[in-house]
Amino acid sequence: MTKAEFAKAADEGQLRKATGKFTAEEKKAKTPLTAGKAAGYSDADIAHFYVSRRGGFMPENKYVQGEIAKGYTPTMSDARNS
Q1: Alpha helices in the chain (DSSP H)
Q2: Which residues contact 18 (CB under 8 A, 6 or more apart)?
Q3: How many CA within 13 A on the CB side of residue 21?
Q4: Which of 22, 44, 45, 73 is deepest in the core (most CB within 10 A)?
Q5: Of residues 9, 3, 2, the one with CA closest to residue 49
Q6: What is the residue-level pLDDT of the chain in tens, covering all 82 positions?
Q7: Alpha-carbon separation of residue 51 from 16, 22, 25, 28, 39 (angstroms)
Q8: What is the pTM of this model?
Q9: CA-CA distance, 48 to 11, in Å (whole number)?
């Protein structure tokens, strides 16, 4: 996923309530990104979650919004490596 695709996906995704139940694939996941995919979340929902976690959708958080608009997405790095 490119940085531009990530920014678009974050806008299109939604926060979804966790079920509290873990699949076998989730338990084996090595990163938050693979855990989210194993849980059935879409790429867009995962991107939306990470942007939300950084406050990117809060109207007063212009810095994060500007960084995302420029394609700066430490959130994907977090998702891949955490």
Answers
A1: 3-12, 24-28, 32-38, 43-53, 62-69, 74-81
A2: 39
A3: 3
A4: 73
A5: 9
A6: 777 787 788 788 888 888 888 889 988 988 878 888 899 899 888 888 878 777 777 777 776 667 666 555 555 666 566 5
A7: 14, 23, 24, 25, 19
A8: 0.66
A9: 7
